[in-house]
Amino acid sequence: MLPLLRAVCFNMPPLYPNAIWMAFELAAYGGFVDAIPGILLQLIVIPLIIRVTDYVKK
């Protein structure tokens, strides 16, 4: 969003093609940064919970 706003206000970076692709790039970085804690939770904590519940059942 910010590259698009800068392109409109200051005419730099040029709206097409740079500002549009920069906006998508920043959105992708944000998506990955938000997804990392959930991925780590699924890879580390959930298998531990499953092992503990299996141990308790026996």
Q: What's a quick, concise take on this entry?
A:
With 58 residues, the chain is an all-alpha fold. It contains two helices and no strands. It has one domain (2-57).
Describe the structure.
The chain has helices spanning 2-10, 15-57. The protein has one domain (2-57). It is rod-shaped, with a radius of gyration of 21 Å. The chain has 2 helices and no strands. 90% of the residues lie in helices and 0% in strands. Helix 1 (2-10) runs antiparallel to helix 2. With 58 residues, it is mainly alpha-helical. The mean pLDDT is 87.
Key features?
58 residues, mainly alpha, 2 helices
Draw up the topology in text:
Layout lengths: L1 H9 L4 H43 L1
Helix pairs in contact: 1-2
Radius of gyration: 21 Å
- The computed structural class is mainly alpha
Oligomeric state of the chains present here: single chain
In N-to-C order, the SSE pattern is HH
Give the uncertain stretches in residue-range form. Answer: none
Count of the separate structural domains = 1
Number of helical runs?
2
Number of beta-strand segments:
0
* Major sheet summary line: none
Strand percentage: under 5%
End-to-end CA span: 54 Å
